[in-house]
Amino acid sequence: MYQPDEVMVGNGDIWIIDEDSVAGEWIVNNDIHLMQSTGLLDKNGKEIFEGDIVDYKGRKAVIKWHGSYASFIYIFVDELQKRVAGWSPLYLAYFHFEVIGNKFETPEFLEVEE
Predict the structure, then answer these.
(1) Which of 33, 51, 61, 114 yields a CA-CA distance of 20 to 30 A from 104?
(2) For residue 104, is pLDDT > 80?
(3) What is the DSSP string of 57-85?
(4) Helix, strand, or coil (residue 4)
(5) Are both 45 and 28 inside the same structural domain?
(6) Quick check: 35 and 49 in contact, CB under 8 A?
(7) How does DSSP assign 15-38, residue by residue?
């Protein structure tokens, strides 16, 4: 995952600025996915983002934003295919999580093992 110093979005384009570049650099919006930080760290001190896939006591879960509750939640991967998947607020258990990937770089982690 790449974290620029600053991101600006406008007209469908994404502009990133790094301290290493003088004038910044245009990135085509098809090449990147913006990920929102939850502001929380996993048990190893790694920042947790929306879309991350975490290990929680041997089960995989994905981090999502729940707009109705204005809160980040986690849903176990094996429950994603259910009509009504159970979920829990992220803040209740994030300190037990280990980030193992995200839905963009490791989508295979979202597949249910049978």
Answers:
(1) 114
(2) yes
(3) TTEEEEEEEETTTTEEEEEEGGGTTSSS-
(4) coil
(5) no
(6) yes
(7) EEE-TT-SS-EEE-TTS-----EE
Q: 46: which residues sit within 8 A by CB, 6+ positions away?
A: 98, 99
Residues 21 and 56 in one domain: no
| 43 and 16 in a common domain | no
The separation between CA 95 and the C-alpha centre of its own chain, rounded to angstroms, equals 16
Residue among 58, 59, 19, 63 at smallest CA distance from 41: 63
Range of the domain at 44: 37-110
The model's pLDDT over 23-71, given as tens digits with 9 standing for 90+, comes to 555 555 556 777 899 999 999 999 999 999 999 999 999 999 999 989 9
Residue owning tokens 């259910």: 82
60 and 23 part of one domain: no
Residue recorded with tokens 């600053």: 6
Give pTM, 2 decimals: 0.76
Cα separation, 53 vs 64, whole angstroms: 10
Kindly report the length of the chain: 114
Question: Do both 57 and 7 map to the same domain?
Answer: no
